[in-house]
Task: structure prediction
Amino acid sequence: MSGLADPRRPDRVGLGWRGELAAGIFAHLDRIDLVELIADDHLRATPRELRPLQLLAAQRPLTLHGVALGLAGSEPVPAQRLDALARLVGRLEPVAWSEHLAFVRAGGHEIGHLAAPPRTACNVEAAARHVEQAARVVGRAPLLENIATLVEPPGSALTEAAWTGAILRTAGAPMLLDLHNLYANAVNTGQEPAAMLDAMLDAVTPGCVQAVHLSGGHWIDEPVLGSTAPESPARSTGQRLLDDHVHDVPPPVYALLEQLAARVPGPLDVVIERDGRYPAFDVLLGQIDAARAALVRGRARAHAAAVLDPMPAEIADAEATAAVSRLEPCLARLYADPAALDGWLADPDRASASLGLDAHDAAALHAADRTGLVMAARSYARKRAEHQGAR
Result:
């Protein structure tokens, strides 16, 4: 049933469905190739509430995008979420569905947003199992999306590219490549975005990337370490790019889309994500046109020959990878409990002992980017507050 992998069709560019954009989407379907729906917003929808979406699906390809399964975590995926997702897929019959390579809960702590787990060989195996489980329940494998992170996950033994490629190959799943997430991770870690994209594409099989997300973000100040409370005043020591979906797609991300189109042989489905501060709809249509133009430029660059290396980079031997099962609950607690994070910042050795970490795990956490941990914890706290306020 998936319309994403058909090599005969052209590239498609569309928009993420939001209630605030509904009228504009229906009024401009002639300029929108496909629409992406956040699955978690409609898991409990009644048949009556789904009728407009079924009408939309009859006019344009519809994809579903999940945000809360936690497929890349070490803990089991909640069966009730998968069952509800399977029912929604059955009702809307989307051309594809997707989820993130992230963990959202561990050790009884709900983080409230997408977090990057320690990237280890052990975690690769767990994620592949969860993806295969989801594919069985829903009836088809999800496209897997890379996430943005303000902190490199401590305890990691693999690069993001090697880890992502290993999961995709092991699970036999396609990829949804979020180019703003990749761009943010690159600039926040001092890497060249184009080189990071090449590394990601070198790590996956040709044709694996079938869909793309484009979005925007804004720069936030790095705080001087102190209290981790979101409202705590802090003097800036620098800036990092936060992926927020409430700003326009920046020019460097369109350049990455052109680079991607030059390397990926198959058709791409590109979705522009916008979650707030909605501009005039003509602005969004202009971004759709800009994405189409980038795809055309990239395809023109690829006319001579395919440049994909079919052999992915070897995965380095990763000892002590079982640490993922201990580090994830620890990270979830630090992200969800400001007092625990304050205690760890004040006395890492004592806090690591109280968290039950052995010497190897404690050293991995001790070497983590403390500023990034604090910024991530504050971001997750705001997300949890937003979710609670929306209920």
Q: What stands out?
A: The first helix runs from residue 22 to 27. Residues 12-303+314-390 form a domain with the TIM Barrel fold (CATH 3.20.20.150). The two ends are 34 Å apart (CA to CA).
